[in-house]
Amino acid sequence: VSQILVVLLTALVLRDVRAVLVLVLLMGGSSIWWFASLRLVGIYLSLFLLFPLVFIICIGTDYALHLFYRARSERIGKARTLPAGCSARIWSTTGRAITAAAITDAGVFLIYSTMELVSGALVLRAMAIAVMVVYFCTLILVPALGWRESPLDERR
Predict the structure, then answer these.
(1) Do 18 and 144 meet the contact criterion of CB atoms below 8 Å apart?
(2) What gap in Å lies between CA 118 and CA 125, rounded to an integer?
(3) Which pLDDT does position 153 carry in this prediction?
(4) For a designed S-S bond to 43, which of 24, 38, 102, 140 qualifies (C-beta 3.0 to 4.6 A apart)?
(5) Pick from 91, 27, 89: nearest CA to 57
(6) Strand pairing partners for 82?
């Protein structure tokens, strides 16, 4: 239900089909990679560990929307592509903020995962992994599918 609401609100606010598709791929891809990464670190799924999926949806949407809004502000007029060299500006501003947020969030969850309650520690470790998986999926999917940079100036 939450994924449907996120998709509808994104479509309503951004009015961009590409942004909605990237968010759907980001949420689905992050969830799949999160399940795989949990298995690699020896955490087995239970109903208790499904809570971080909501967190994946929320934080993944947050990271992606920040990048989309920054890319939208970099466009000139109604151009469909970004001006040449624009990706570097996006990553030097918004990318730094997203990186700092991901490292801080994952670090806080890892610090709190040292508590004595075993099931709570597992959920917090799983959430730290979820934050980093969403961060890396955002780094890969949003620039690849979310915006295009024109190789030349759009002066014709």
Answers:
(1) no
(2) 10
(3) 45
(4) 38
(5) 27
(6) 149
